[in-house]
């Protein structure tokens, strides 16, 4: 039984509540570990530790802080296999995916921000012969980082690394559904020699532990990734306290395929963008709009490649689709499949639970599911499902597809496929999405702004945006 502990003031400790939650392995449906069910007292202790560590941490040079972060990155790399196994077991994702995506990206996050801090310059504004203004960027102080279950270590470190890099101390909470790699990270931080209290990882559920982080007056900024409803609740709590807020929320991303595209690449990539991580990536394209002349051909090739997907034990090398993250989430996605049928959807593939024999007989597996014949404005096409369920919709004109693509309350990412360079840019600029990929998907450069429009969030992560978020700008004006 894996018994997770909180990482508090440099030590691994049990929660002050002495309560634990069950940790379930999604591929087997069995409890395999215990997670601290921490409460406000644990959070208060973490904030006190972070406040005590803050003066020395912010006084270190960016280079010295960066050196420690790069050491953590190296330790993540050195423990790749162990971390990938833990991530796959905790989340249900294929081990092969955790090995090439989640864990290498977590190392990159520490490496990128560890080195970026040394290149983070402030601005100066000179009024000739009159005055010089320059901007000092102070670390905000103690900050809270709260992350979801879909890319556990990847998103957790994406927040923590820039905060630490600029000199903030952190109280962080991973999702209670996938806490294992955050716990292993605490061990690696101890091994790397990160000073006590600089990073505190407190485990627990949203209402008790997360809420206490958001409410604590000692926490000056919150970086949150999760659902839109949670983000709304969190903003309601934090805004009257004038905390800085970065919210990365849900999506319902369009994937637009024009008739002049490179069809083979568009189909192959669309299989990934629809079903990677069982469709549980906020950037997955769940609404596929296909220009009518190639609609039937795209559909045939898409369904043919879909048939090659293998739903099964996440540990098997041949598995491309693992388990959904929890029983509750499986039932939520199944309910959307029923809704899609009620709304008149024609089921082209999947639609049902998959029984995987052997140790995974009780696991939360779902066949990748494809519908067509659904209006663009029905609930299935408007609400975030966050599972392996996509819809295919034909379109005739650029105006029509833009109005359908932009019709949801969300605006996180969009993908479009065309060889017409002018159209590519024109359509990209007209899409209400914070991120647009042209002829590719999930191609990431950590320097670029990352985040969504509309109900997909507030603020941007990545590169300088993240470093700015965790700092307070102070302008100093000198009369000449
Ligand atoms: P969630 O909102 O249920 O939980 C996210 C985190 O918030 C968890 O750690 C949870 O414990 C915590 N939490 C819950 N209630 C809280 C409260 N009252 N106060 C403070 N913290 C609280 O989301 P989830 O189900 O874990 O993740 C799936 C969602 O995340 C999807 O909507 C997905 O689109 C979104 N997501 C967005 C991005 C992005 O970058 N925009 C990336 C990944 C996932």
From TrEMBL:
Positions of the catalytic residues: 248
Family annotation (InterPro entries): Ald_DH/histidinol_DH, Ald_DH_C, Ald_DH_CS_CYS, Ald_DH_CS_GLU, Ald_DH_N, Aldehyde_DH_dom
Pfam family name, one: Aldedh
Keywords: NAD, Oxidoreductase
Keyword Oxidoreductase annotated: yes
Keyword Acetylation: no
PANTHER family with a match to the protein in the record: 2-AMINOMUCONIC SEMIALDEHYDE DEHYDROGENASE
Family: Belongs to the aldehyde dehydrogenase family.
Name of protein: Aldehyde dehydrogenase
Lineage of source species: Bacteria, Pseudomonadati, Bacteroidota, Cytophagia, Cytophagales
């Amino acid at each position: 039984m894996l018994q997770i502990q909180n990482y508090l003031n440099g030590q691994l400790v049990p929660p002050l509540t002495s309560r634990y939650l069950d940790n379930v392995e999604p591929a087997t449906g069995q409890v395999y570990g215990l997670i601290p069910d921490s409460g406000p007292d644990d959070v208060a202790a973490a904030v006190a530790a972070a406040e005590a560590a803050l003066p020395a941490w912010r006084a270190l040079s960016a280079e010295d802080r960066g050196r420690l972060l790069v050491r953590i990155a190296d330790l993540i790399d050195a423990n790749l296999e162990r971390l990938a196994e833990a991530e796959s077991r905790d989340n249900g994702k294929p081990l092969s995916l955790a090995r090439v995506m989640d864990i290498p990206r977590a190392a990159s996050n520490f490496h990128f921000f560890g080195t970026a801090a040394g290149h983070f310059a402030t601005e100066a504004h000179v009024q000739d012969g009159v005055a010089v203004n320059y901007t000092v960027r102070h670390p905000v102080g103690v900050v809270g980082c709260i992350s979801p279950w879909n890319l556990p270590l990847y998103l957790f470190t994406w927040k923590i690394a820039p905060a630490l890099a600029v000199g903030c101390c952190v109280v962080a909470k991973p999702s209670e559904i996938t806490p294992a790699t955050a716990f292993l990270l605490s061990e690696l931080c101890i091994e790397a020699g990160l000073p006590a209290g600089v990073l505190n990882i407190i485990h627990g559920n949203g209402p008790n532990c997360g809420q206490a982080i958001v409410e604590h007056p000692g926490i000056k900024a919150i970086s949150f990734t999760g659902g839109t409803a949670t983000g709304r609740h969190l903003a309601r709590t934090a805004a009257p306290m004038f905390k800085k807020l970065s919210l990365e929320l849900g999506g319902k991303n369009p994937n637009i395929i024009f008739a002049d595209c490179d069809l083979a690449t568009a189909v192959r990539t669309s299989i990934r963008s629809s079903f990677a991580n069982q469709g549980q990536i906020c950037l997955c394209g769940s609404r596929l709009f296909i220009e009518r002349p190639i609609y039937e051909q795209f559909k045939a090739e898409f369904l043919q490649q879909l048939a090659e997907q293998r739903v099964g034990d996440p540990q098997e090398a041949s598995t491309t689709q693992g388990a959904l993250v929890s029983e509750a989430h499986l039932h939520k996605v199944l309910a959307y499949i029923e809704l899609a049928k009620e709304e008149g959807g024609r089921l082209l593939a999947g639609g049902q639970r998959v029984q995987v024999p052997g140790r995974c007989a009780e696991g939360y597996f779902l066949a990748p599911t494809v519908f067509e014949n659904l209006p663009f404005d029905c609930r299935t096409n408007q609400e975030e499902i966050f599972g392996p369920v996509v819809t295919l919709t034909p379109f005739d004109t650029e105006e029509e597809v833009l109005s359908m693509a932009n019709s949801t309350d969300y605006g996180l990412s969009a993908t479009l496929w065309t060889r017409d360079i002018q159209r590519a840019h024109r359509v990209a600029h007209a899409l209400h999405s914070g991120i647009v990929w042209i002829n590719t998907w999930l191609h990431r450069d950590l320097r670029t702004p990352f985040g969504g429009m509309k109900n997909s969030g507030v603020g941007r992560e990545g590169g300088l945006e993240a470093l700015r978020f965790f700092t307070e700008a102070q302008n100093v004006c000198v009369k000449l």
